[in-house]
Amino acid sequence: MHLFVVQRILGVLLMVFSLSMLPPLGISMWTGDGALVGFTDAFILTLGLGLACWAPVRNRRQDLRVRDGFLVVVMFWGVLGLTGSLPFLFAENQDMTITDAVFESISGLTTTGATVIVGIDELPVSILYYRQQLQWLGGMGIIVLAVAVLPMLGIGGMQLYRAETPGPVKDNKLTPRITETAKALWYIYLGLTLSCMLAYWLGGMRPFDAMGHAFSTVAIGGFSTHDESIGYYDSTLIEMIAVIFMLLSGANFALHFLAVRRRSLRTYFEDPEFRGYITTLGVVIVIVSSALFFMGVYGTWGESIIRGLFQAVSIGTTTGFTTADYSLWPGFISILLLFSSFVGGCAGSTGGGIKVIRFLLLIKQGVREINRLIHPNAEIPIRIGTKTIPWRIVEAVWGFFALYVASFGVMYLALASTGLDLMTSFSAVAASINNLGPGLADVGSNYANLNDPAKWILCFAMLLGRLEIFTLLVLLTPAFWRK
């Protein structure tokens, strides 16, 4: 374990992150919204902390090992969540506790979208921008962004990329060099963001709102500049724009890269995971829309389909935008939507959840075991499309699923022990570990009324989901620290 190198990288990353506080600082200075001192203090403290970490070990140069990469990622997200809370904590007239400020920061950076703020419409403009920016930076992963910069500083990045990139297969690279891979991912991410921003603006949003919602749409985050979320605009056009970009952002970004390079949309439909992703969402859309109509929630098919389509895509991709409070719909619909977030987006996307590819592998392995009961001696490979999946990957997926279920159960019980009712506890853990945001019961609209221990448990759940279980839990094993 190269702890001095880890410290040096952490210092560099913190200094880079401090720069993200300059745009909202400039906005506060321009608008005079009263948050200038908060952003100035937060910038100085974050930059100073980064310098304090980096300066004593700036000449320590060694290659990163895999274990070092995991430690950097987890430490950085932990420290980033704390330093990211400083503008909320220092902002005048916000009166946020440390717990609420950290919760809001981690929720933004992990693209969960759960909020403790009531009265979003009344927030200073710079704070509104900062919340959206947090999600945009967290969307593709601040570590992947840093991978494109760190090689110039003499720091290798492959271990960071492996630890941060979502999905069961970590070794596939879009381009031969990791730096070029990170750049390719960010060009796609930036292109989607700009396209979404333009579409929202042409659809009727103000430029500031278009930018803010584009940030959280492409990041699959769900933060909004209004308490009513996308429902504030009462516009079918804006809702359909959001649906399109949520679907694109929930797909594997490698597919976007290949589709652009090949100049063919067939790339998407040749991918088994993408087909499973679209099929799953399609089934949920049909069921939810039909249930909304036949249960009398909406009086016409048109409104039922529009509401069902938007909520199914938003919850299924773990974005968390709303045009209606789905927690008030009949229980069958609410639970179905919440369950769809467990599947989530595709591997290599900005979406949360377990990921579509893992569910495909779990289903195929289940079918395989049933067939082996009938043919005990048969050798039955597991295939995704035309590719045979190595047994090591199948084992890893089962291990992930087992840890996911165990972690969910422990946090569910922990949350219930703080005095919350069972539905609130279940949905809050589900919405946090899947990086969804809105839950059911007492967390249907916001998390402001939860007690402090519950919020800290959910902060851990959000980090666990964002780092896909293994990356965080591996640090808690004695073997990780053993020489």
Description of the structure:
It is a single chain. 64% of the residues lie in helices and 1% in strands. It has 23 helices and two strands. It has a two-stranded antiparallel sheet. Strand 1 (383-384) and strand 2 (387-388) form a beta hairpin. Helix 1 packs parallel to helix 4 and helix 16 packs parallel to helix 17. The N and C termini lie close together (8 Å). Mean pLDDT is 88; it is low at 152-156.
Order of helices and strands: HHHHHHHHHHHHHHHHHHEEHHHHH
Radius of gyration: 22 Å
Instruction: Label the structural class.
Output: mainly alpha
Query: For the terminal residues, how far apart are their CA atoms?
Result: 8 Å
Helix content: 55-70%
Shape: globular
State the total count of DSSP E strands.
2
Q: How many H/I helices? A: 23
The parts where pLDDT drops under 50 for at least 5 residues are 152-156
Strand order of the largest sheet: 1-2
Biggest sheet statistics: 2 strands, antiparallel
β-strand amount = under 5%
- Look at the structure and give the mean pLDDT: 88
In short:
The chain has helices at 3-18, 22-31, 36-54, 66-83, 86-90, 98-109, 125-140, 142-147, 158-164, 178-203, 207-218, 236-249, 253-262, 266-269, 272-294, 301-316, 331-343, 356-374, 391-417, 422-433, 452-466, 470-473, 478-481; strands at residues 383-384, 387-388. With 483 residues, the protein is mainly α.
